[in-house]
Design goal:
Blueprint (H helix, E strand, L loop, with lengths): L2 H24 L7 H17 L23 E3 L9 E2 L2 H14 L6 E7 L2 E8 L2 E7 L5 E3 L2 H4 L16 E9 L2 H13 L8 H9 L4 H6 L3 E8 L8 H11 L11 E4 L2 H14 L7 E8 L2 H7 L9 E5 L3 E14 L5 E12 L2 E7 L3 H7 L6 E6 L6 E5 L42 H12 L11 H9 L14 H5 L6 H13 L5 H7 L7 H11 L2 H6 L2 H5 L6 H12 L1 H13 L7 H5 L9 E5 L7 H10 L3 E3 L8 E4 L5 H10 L2 E3 L1 H7 L1
Helix pairs in contact: 1-2, 12-13, 16-17
The structure holds zinc ion (ZN).
Length: 670
């Protein structure tokens, strides 16, 4: 290809990918397979890497993120970002309509739309390109989060049609329910605390430093308000329809997300409809917004100090119902944490039948004085799990007694403990309490630990319940017939598990060390320990002083390691795992490959390599004494670049003058 042809191809690919993005994320109507889409994207990435002079700043390759923002720049809004006045009663809406009637002559058209419960955003476009995205902040100035917003697929990077030269569009960014649920499912699997609601998760996500993580979170948006000088329309609804034509995801009349209303009755009809129908949406709304449609009339009405007089928000009440608390039960988590659960007389709330509600912890029960047989007030806000917010104490039976929080574990009957500063009670019976046993084995087999093919958490739960295993070492004693006799286990599945177990004996020492589950010894710490001590035997023999002398091992970790090896159950499992033949020390290859050649140097790894996987390359850097960092800064010594290195990283490296080397040059260094 000549340079000219290359430039043309980059333009073609950009336009085509933008169109497919639009079809998929705005219209929900893809016309190409995911595979073909990826091929187009890959081709564009390659060309941009090779010919950075043609790479557009708003290229769709930016969608995957990759830039790091340490501090978000503060930007003053061109037009203050005001909030609407809120109302909770229908009378206030009627007053609003009456007020406007008195101030304005003639027929008045209103537009009703949804009030999205997300994060407000103002996005400026210049010459059809996304220029800048700013959060609401305090309304006068907000944070520049452009790079993060570019990863949101439903927000166009490049507009179509007859757009004004410069304008701002405002709207809301949110996390769809199914994305939120998936995210929490992943958190649950690794035993982390769950996110409480989609709104806070979206607002936390949009302010993350690493745009690549933001890209994975699959945020979505609705944009619904166009601002600028000399805009070519006279009504709000006209503006929305134009914005749709330019490529924005706007609320559509056909979905009843937005509706022209000519009377207060029609406004109430819209409110009533969504008060119920909102529960079927895949995102949260917390009310309805009513605006005067005509721009002229909006101007005539003007503003108060805080908000426009031509608009009002009607907020839905957080839904509450009363029902009877039948029983309090207690769940034991994989880490031993106890969560009290209210079992309720089933009741309809926010469109679903609710039977259970969270009680959080002992303090919460005491604070609200919640007792069995009480009539309780259950609320569902943005949270997934409804909560109890109050008790009808006056309706209580005279013989009612305050709730006695359990003293023993409901799974294994061990006395519970509660350390100072912890809101939750814990079951200390790590090795005998079924959910904790399952949690440990699930960690052992997880992808970053022993990564055993064919074994998942469900299988582990089943094996523990059937009494076939009590700890991770027992996995290696499983026999074909034992697995084959389980329901749903066929030849192939059983063989797959057994093969996976055999293969796991090849897993290197640092991952075995991570897999055995010493508290506070995560992936990175396990690597440091392995490199410093070289074998499990050396770690086991190490004194407190020797432990903290190792790189990045603090007192908390050292104490935890000492405690781990004092425990009889741990000793037993470790001995069995050693017998099985897991790697309990660095291999000769690993020992031979360690050096201090890269000491004092910091590397950033980017792109795809032919000789190594990315993880192998990072490993090799660390084994030779170098440091790996995920972001390019003045401190970066080298970037090891493979195919498809992100264009933003390339640009940053060039700006800072950081040396870029390929994998061969890296090999020569070590
Ligand atoms: Zn227990």
């Amino acid at each position: 290809m000549t340079l000219e042809q290359t430039q043309k191809r980059i333009k073609e690919l950009t336009a085509s990918i933008n169109q497919h993005n639009y079809n998929y994320y705005v219209l929900s109507n893809p016309t190409i397979s995911d595979f073909d889409f990826d091929m187009l994207l890959e081709e564009l990435q390659k060309l941009e890497l090779e010919f950075p002079q043609f790479a557009d700043e708003n290229s769709p390759t930016k969608r995957v993120g990759g830039s790091i923002t340490k501090n978000f720049e503060t930007v003053k809004h061109n037009y203050p970002m005001l909030s609407l006045s809120n109302s909770y009663s229908r009378e206030e809406i009627a007053d609003f309509e009456n007020r406007i009637k008195k101030l304005i002559d003639g027929e008045i058209e209103y537009v009703c739309e949804l009030k999205y419960d997300g994060v407000a955003i103002g996005i400026t476009y210049k010459n059809g390109k996304l220029f800048r995205a700013v959060t609401r902040g305090d309304g006068v100035q907000g944070d520049n989060i452009t790079e993060n917003v570019k990863t949101i697929r439903s927000i166009p990077l490049q507009l179509n049609g007859d757009f004004p030269e410069e304008f701002e569009i405002r709207g809301e960014i949110f996390m769809p329910h199914k994305v939120f649920e998936q995210l929490n499912k992943e958190k649950e699997e690794i035993g982390e605390q769950l996110y409480a609601n989609a709104r806070n998760t979206a607002s936390g996500t949009i302010k993350m430093q690493d745009s690549a993580v933001v890209a994975q979170r699959k945020l979505d948006s609705y944009l619904y308000f166009v601002l600028g000088e000399n805009l070519p329309f006279t009504t709000h609804l006209e503006a929305i329809n134009k914005a749709k034509a330019w490529g924005f995801k706007v609320p559509l009349e056909e979905n009843n997300f937005i509706k022209k209303c000519n009377s207060i009755d029609e406004i109430f009809e819209f409110i009533n409809y969504w008060d119920t129908a909102r529960h079927q949406l895949d995102f949260d709304i917390d009310g309805v917004v009513i605006k005067v449609n005509s721009y002229n009339k909006q101007q005539e009405l003007g503003m108060t100090a805080k908000s426009p007089k031509w608009a009002i928000a009607y907020k839905f009440k957080a839904e509450q119902v009363k029902t009877k608390l039948l029983e309090i039960t207690y769940q034991v988590g994989r880490t031993g944490a106890i969560t009290p659960v209210a079992n309720l007389q089933p009741v309809l709330l926010a469109g679903t039948t609710v039977k259970r509600a969270s009680l959080h912890n002992a303090d919460q029960i005491e604070k609200l004085d919640i007792r069995v047989n009480d009539i309780v007030l259950v609320e569902k806000g943005g949270e997934i799990i409804p909560k109890i917010v109050g008790v009808e104490a006056t309706q209580r039976d005279i013989f009612s007694q305050p709730t006695q929080y359990i003293k023993n574990c409901p799974e294994c009957n061990t006395a519970l403990i509660r350390t100072e500063g912890d809101a939750k009670h814990f079951c200390p019976n790590e090795w005998g309490c079924p959910p904790q046993i399952k949690g440990k084995i699930a960690h052992f087999i997880s992808r970053k630990a022993m990564n055993i093919d064919g074994l998942g958490e469900e299988t582990i739960d089943l094996l523990v319940d059937k009494n076939l295993i009590k700890n991770s070492a027992d996995l290696y004693n499983l026999r074909f017939e034992q697995l084959f006799n389980l329901e749903g286990f066929k030849d192939k599945k059983v063989q797959n598990i057994l093969d996976g177990l055999v293969q796991s004996k090849q897993i290197p020492f640092e991952r075995v060390l991570y897999a055995i589950g010493i508290r506070f010894v995560g992936e990175t710490v396990a690597k440091k320990l392995a490199k410093h001590f070289k074998s499990l035997e050396n770690i086991r023999k190490a004194s407190f002083e020797e432990l903290i002398a190792a790189d990045e091992i603090g007192e908390k970790i050292a104490e935890s390691i000492l405690l781990f090896f004092e425990n009889e159950s741990n000793k037993e499992v470790i001995a069995k795992l050693e017998q099985v033949g897991l790697n309990f020390s660095l291999s000769e290859d690993q020992l031979a490959n360690t050096s201090n050649k890269l000491e004092g140097l910091t590397f950033v790894v980017s792109g795809v390599f032919t000789l190594f996987s990315r993880d192998e390359l990072k490993d090799s850097i660390e084994k030779n004494g170098g440091k790996v960092s995920s972001s390019i800064s003045k401190k970066t010594s080298y970037i090891v670049a493979g195919e498809n290195m992100g264009p933003s990283k390339l640009q940053k490296a060039q700006e800072l003058g950081v040396k870029i080397i390929d994998e061969n040059a890296f090999l020569a260094m070590v």
